[in-house]
Amino acid sequence: MTETATQIDKCSECHAEIMIDCAWEAGGMNDYGGFIVQCRTCNAVQDIYVGRDILMSRVRSGAILLERYDRDVEGDRERKRKKHGLDG
Predict the structure, then answer these.
(1) How many domains does the chain have?
(2) pLDDT per position in the chain (88 positions), as tens?
(3) Does the residue 27 lie in any domain?
(4) Which distant-in-sequence residues (6+ apart) come within 8 Å of 15 by Cβ?
(5) Which backbone phi and psi does 70 adopt, to 5 degrees?
């Protein structure tokens, strides 16, 4: 059975709301991680930790999904952050 919850974040630059529908399969194989998103209001790019399951979760509003990263894949988050200019 798939469970969902809405996560509300704020853009790190303009503080516009970014809504993410977080989904996970109870008792299933869930990939933990997050999203690299671009704010629809100011175009700022940021990293948002989603939790699980990054493959079934989606950005509902406020941002464009650029990348998903899996926390259990060594270096995945860092590579994707660097690709989008988020060094540090």
Answers:
(1) 1
(2) 788 999 999 999 999 999 999 988 877 666 889 999 999 999 999 999 998 888 889 999 999 999 999 999 999 999 999 999 998 5
(3) yes
(4) none
(5) -105, 120
Question: What 3-state DSSP class applies to 81?
Answer: helix
Does residue 88 form part of some domain? no
- Edge-to-edge strands, sheet with 2-10: 2-10, 17-25, 58-61
The pTM of the whole model exceeds 0.70: yes
Decide if 6 is inside a domain: yes
Domain holding 62, by residue range, is 2-83
Residue 39 lies in a domain: yes
In one-letter notation, the amino acid at residue 27 is G
